[in-house]
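Sequence only, no structure available. Ideas?
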Amino acid sequence: MKKNIYIIWCLLLYAISTQAEVKLPGIFSDRMVLQRETPIPIWGWAEPKETIVVDFNGKQYKTRASKTGEWSINLPEHKAGGPYELKINQTSIQDVYVGDVYLCSGQSNMELTVKRVMDKYKDEIMSYENNLIRYTKTKYAYNFIAPQENSENEWKTCNRKDALDFAALCYFFAKEMQAEKEVAIGIINSSWGGTKIASWSTRQSLEKYENFKEKFRSSQYSNPDYPDSVKNAQQAQVSQWHQRQAADDLGNKEKWIHESFDASDWEEIDVFNSNWGGSRNSPLNGVHYFRQKISIPESLAGQKATLRVGTLKDSDATYINGVCVGRTSYQYPPRIYQVPAGTLRAGENEIVIRLVSSAGCPEFVKGKPYQLEIAGRTLPLAAIWKHKMGCTMERIPSTIGFQNEPTGLYNSMIHPLRNYGIRGIIWYQGESDTGPQGSKLYESHLIDLINDWRTQWNNKNLPFIIVQLANYQQRSKVPVESGNARVREAQRKASLQLKNSGLATAIDLGESNDIHPLNKKDLAHRCVLQMNKLAFGKKNIVAEGPMAESAELKDGRIIVSFMQGTGTLKQAESLEGIAVAANDGKYKFVKAYTEGNTVIVKWDGKGIPASIRYAWENNPPSSIYNTEGLPASSFQLPVVSKVKYSVTVRTPL
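Reply:
I predicted one. Tokens follow.
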């Protein structure tokens, strides 16, 4: 009898020990958030026909792997709560919450980290932690052969350390949502800076375009080794460029960064107005050196300080009194360098910047802070620097950024997530599609992307928020064509054509000298408004600015009407940024004002007005608001007359 019991016990232990360990998708990890109030998909891989046992919240669920090892199971709906343990066979996932999950995707403005907006929100960020906010950034990956089944993710909680690497827009969106809903908020950020919409699109949606058909016939889409072979060859060329630059400048670098070097024969230039960087057609690439002396009072000598040298194009190493205080490897980040105690002395101190220009004109971006900050005092740097070339180089060899190639990011960074339960999607992309061809097709590409993603998540009404591009670059004094405006118009039209989609406009939150504006908090609030309307059924709230609906010529006036549900117009006696064209297609700025819930334009031009535009430039004035303080989207509308005319307006593409 004892022998039989022993044998049975051994067999049980053997069965337990030989139970195959399952493999789970990367999106499943400690600290994850699962979507509440909907069936919860759990899936993965195991040995063929293996029994899968899932334990969650005190209940057990079973399924069996297929002949090829795939398995999936839907847990029943759960209300918000946690923390839980999710156990699948021998694999245990800890600290799991049920709440609301959002997918955020796009390019660099969706990636821009909390660390980059600390200047604006430091006190708020450093005083806030919340265990109920969880965030994961999908690791960069692309594949051109086929959609992938897995991605690399790691969930993190919102503490003062990890939150610095959260995307700023996601951070403020999650913070406001968590305070309002009082449930765990999970953010999945699948973004990559500088990428085009085609990178995030399915092959099926792009094959109807002839240029993409041709692309799909290339080796890139049939040979899995092709990208690496090209990258290796390109990297060798880029490395050679840097090696030549370093060798040609070696002697200068060893001498010129030191404070004792005599630079009396260097040229004095105004870094914002001189042509030291060459011209647009003939940029002066290579290594540039800049020197400036700044006087420090004895009371501040030896103290820690912060040096701000604006934004530089392209990369730099910056020194004070021969001590390197910071390096930045590319053009966009602001240069905010911490100066160690003991570096600064009473009297004259010398700042040296070694700037490497690899492509295009090198630049000190105007309007950024250039100053030294010590103990609450700000010592501005002058615009006049001493300058000398270390070496001149040809433009760095161009490379293929495979992250910008069609379908690659969808296949590797979106498709693997398609079974994960989410509440909605926020999309912030478009800056890379403002060229003539990209902006012309953006509307159809965006509509296709939204429909495809909804199909992948098996939810035709999945809430989808489109962030409309922020204002950027210099303002124009006359009406101009604008790729940014064309993309904004495509975003506006797409939001109107598709159900359960909405627009969060950033048209008044940008910065003329920075494509990455810092104000992500107000933008996040606008996304919260739209998500409340689309995902939580708050149909009566005003979630966006005034949305133009029609323009009619009547009694010598153009009357622009706005859609119901987009608020009441804030009254203004004078509006900026409105232009009208007759059938010659030439736009002219006109005077306009609000009257009730319409915009009135008195037409005194020649011919019959055919088209009206508002905020149609890269950095337009924003003058139309509703009483909730939300800005109107830019728009272009035909002007309809009650008198029938045969009018054809020639609108440039």
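Residues 226-256 form the longest helix (31 residues).
Hope that gets you unstuck.
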